[in-house]
């Protein structure tokens, strides 16, 4: 019977660490990290996410701003807004909440954010720095997973880590981070024999967005299971990508959904913003 | 008994394709791709490599230049040189031959090359584009391996591809290219159980720089074996990272060393330079 990984508690710890460093930065250098969230139009989910990010930013002591242009904003106007934020020395982190309206090329907007201020870690330059093993803002969700592993005493070095899913925001950066931590890394997707791969994993990270795709019986006894999936079911409940109850029987540690990886994303966004402020000061 | 993959022949084919496209570009758009190789000081190996690159560039019909500052050049002077080449519209590709003298920060120089002209594919922006699955110049050696696989009819989709080695110029970009081609990708290194991993590989790419580290008996019957290793032995001969004779017995296809992957690197550099000229025109 595995132990739960309490993402809420770890995220709170990360935020407390950030808060403490912010206080020191203020006292020693008169510097207050600033985060601007750009939310375009009225996507209801975006509103919830942005509210959570602003709340977290305020709690750790950041300056926190929201830019909220109408959905009718043109791509050029949005680029000008990003450019203004790039130039603003009080803004250390710029987060453009996705999705953007269809008439706007999201890739072009993300690439326009100055890489040092890209606290989401989505800019090609930051994806490249991760791949090359250089410091830089890291994609928040996999960065949070690395912290969870550390918290439960799981050192990936020499372990077989199987990442299911290869998205740009979770799967690929996750694989690169695990590789940098000296795991033997396997990256799987819909063309892979998942049962076979997962059954040989010391660490499983599931990030596909298919409820209970990963069967509990595939989990190797003692494995650490990280479930990044957040699938909203018809009854309104959230389910992960892993068959939780059955996996719990075999894993040493496992993240619940919700309350596992989820809270880490915002916490690591705070970490990235703090680091951007320190680096840019 | 496996078949040899004739890298020399494939590389010649790639260069012939490039040459044909160059002729068309000249005829239709009056455009001649231009490649400048920057060689600092007198490293004997660098001289040989640069000579080979210049020769290949001339053969495919590029304009080809060499900048050859003295080893005493300062970092700032070298940056100015790179900046001048960045601004020169006749130069579509800039290749800074490594290694650079110790007083120069190679990373800073590489990052100064405009990403569109970084025909080595080493710029963080281009590493990022590869990771994100976006077009851009690709690291030449793994790009060449992808072409070799295609030439022998090996489609990586759904296959288990095991990459041994995780360097920034071969292992990591190789893994990302194989992933983009829908392989299940395993990345191994010195902390991995190589015998176990290699024995389950449909495609093996060895890029570690240790002669005959990969034993022939580990090769799964029918696997495709790509040996990127080029290890100079005391007797002056080159050896790969794979125990060749024994692996040949089991593989379906295998690259020899020399004459396998080696010739592909320069050929793909020509491809990248041509693409840079087409994109930049």
Automatic annotation (TrEMBL), chains A, B:
Pathway the protein takes part in: One-carbon metabolism; tetrahydrofolate interconversion
Known partners and oligomeric status: Homodimer.
Catalysed conversion reaction: (6R)-5,10-methylene-5,6,7,8-tetrahydrofolate + NADP(+) = (6R)-5,10-methenyltetrahydrofolate + NADPH; (6R)-5,10-methenyltetrahydrofolate + H2O = (6R)-10-formyltetrahydrofolate + H(+)
Residue ranges of domain Tetrahydrofolate dehydrogenase/cyclohydrolase NAD(P)-binding in the record: 139-278
Alphabetical keyword list: Amino-acid biosynthesis, Histidine biosynthesis, Hydrolase, Methionine biosynthesis, Multifunctional enzyme, NADP, One-carbon metabolism, Oxidoreductase, Purine biosynthesis
Name of the protein in question: Bifunctional protein FolD
A molecular function GO annotation: methylenetetrahydrofolate dehydrogenase (NADP+) activity
């Amino acid at each position: 019977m595995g132990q739960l990984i309490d993402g809420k508690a770890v995220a709170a710890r990360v935020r407390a660490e950030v808060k403490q460093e912010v206080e020191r930065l203020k006292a020693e250098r008169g510097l207050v990290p600033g985060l601007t969230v750009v939310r375009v139009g009225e996507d209801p989910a975006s509103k919830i996410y942005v509210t959570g990010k602003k709340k977290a930013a305020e709690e750790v002591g950041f300056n926190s701003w929201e830019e909220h242009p109408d959905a009718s904003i043109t791509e050029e106007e949005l680029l000008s807004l990003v450019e203004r934020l790039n130039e603003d020395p009080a803004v250390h982190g710029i987060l453009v909440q996705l999705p953007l309206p269809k008439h706007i090329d999201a890739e072009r907007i993300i690439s326009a954010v100055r890489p040092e201020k890209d606290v989401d870690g989505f800019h090609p330059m930051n994806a490249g720095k991760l791949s090359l093993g250089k410091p830089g803002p890291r994609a928040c969700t996999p960065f949070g997973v690395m912290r969870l592993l550390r918290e439960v005493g799981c050192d990936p070095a020499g372990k077989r880590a199987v990442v299911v899913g290869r998205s740009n925001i979770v799967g690929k950066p996750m694989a690169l981070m695990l590789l940098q931590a000296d795991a033997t890394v396997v990256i799987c997707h819909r063309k892979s024999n998942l049962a076979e791969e997962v059954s040989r994993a010391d660490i499983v990270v599931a990030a596909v967005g298919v409820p209970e795709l990963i069967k509990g019986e595939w989990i190797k006894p003692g494995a650490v299971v990280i479930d990044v999936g957040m699938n909203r079911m018809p009854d309104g409940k959230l389910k992960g990508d892993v068959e939780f109850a059955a996996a719990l029987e075999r894993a040493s540690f496992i993240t619940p959904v919700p309350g596992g990886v989820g809270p880490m994303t915002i916490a690591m966004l705070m970490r990235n913003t703090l680091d951007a402020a320190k680096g840019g000061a």
